[in-house]
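In this section we walk through a basic example: taking a raw amino acid sequence and producing a predicted 3D structure, encoded as C-alpha cells. The instruction is simple. Fold the sequence below.
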Amino acid sequence: MSNSTVTIQRHIAAQQTLHPEATGQFTAMLWDLVLAFKMIAREVRRAGLIDILGSIGRTNVHGEKVQKLDEYAQDLIYHSMLAGGHVCCMASEERAEMIPLPRERRRGKHVLLYDPLDGSSNIDVNISIGTIFSIHKKVTPGADGALEDCLQPGTKQIAAGYVIYGSSVMLVYTTGFGVHGFTLDPTIGEFLLSHENIRMPARGKTYSINEGNSASFDPATAKYVHWIKQKDPETGRPYSLRYVGTLVADIHRTLINGGIFMYPAAPKPKLRLLYEGAPMAMIVEQAGGRATNGTQRILDIQPTDLHQKVPLIIGSPEDVEIYEEFIQGRDS
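The resulting C-alpha cell sequence is shown next.
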C-alpha cells in the first residue's frame, strides 16, 4: 500500500498488532486525540478571520499570558478525552494542578500529559505553533488517577508526539517502534503518512538557541556556541543559526535535518519536563538522536513536580555528544 493511502488510523491499528496484549483502548484514545488535533488545526487556519486571536486577560501557572487559542486547545483536548473515557487522569502545561475527571465519567488506564498550544506567543504574528502530548500507563491501584501516575520518568512513556501547525499541518508520533509523520490533507480531512520511519542525521549543519540570552550562558555553553560558529571545513563549521522560538518548530526542523537545539540551564531552565522535554526526548531518541540536560539523559530524570523545568539539549547524536564534551571541560 502506498503511503498516500495510509491514514493515521490505519497506521495506529497496524501498530496495535505489535502488542498482542492490546485491548484497543489505547488505539481509541489516539483516534480521539487525532480528531482534537484536526479541530485545533481548523481554528488555527481561521484565526485571523474569527475572534480567536489575542489574550483572554489572565496568566497561567508560569506567569505567561493565556491566549484565546491556548484556552480553546486546552478545553478541546480535555473534553475529547472525557468523551472517550480512556484516561484516569490528565495534566496540562496550562493548569497548575492535575486535572480532575468528573465523578460520573468512565475511567481508563492511561494518563495524558500535554502542552495544548506550544509557542502561543507566536500566534498573533502567524508563526508556526504546535501541540505536544505524552501518554503513560496508570501505575496506581483504583480507578482514579493519582499524582504518582503523572510523575513517571520519560522511560515509562508508551507514546509521545506533536502536531505542528505551519505551512502544512503535520503530526509526528512514536509508540516505541520508530517515528512516523503524517500530513493533514485538508481536501479529505485525513492525516496521511508522509514521513515513514524518520531517522535523524548523525550530525547536522544548524544550531538553535536564543542568543539573546548569550550574556547569561554558562561558560560551557558559551564556549560551545563560540566553537560552533568558527570556520573549520573538516568539521562542517560554521553551523547556521536557526531559531523560531516555538519548541515544536525548532525540534521538527532538527528532527528532519539534523543539528542541535539548546535551552541550557542559564539564564534559567524554562522547558517543562513532563509536557515538553520528555515527549520530545522520546521522539528524538526513537529517531536515532539524543536528549540530555547536559549531564543526564532526559528520559532518566525522575519528575518531582508537575511543572518541573529542565535544561534541554537535543538533536543529532554527534552534535549532542560534542556539547557534552564542553560541559565536561573541553576548551575548543
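Looking at the output, two observations stand out. The chain has two domains: 3-195, 206-327. The chain has a mean pLDDT of 91. In the next section we compare this with other chains.
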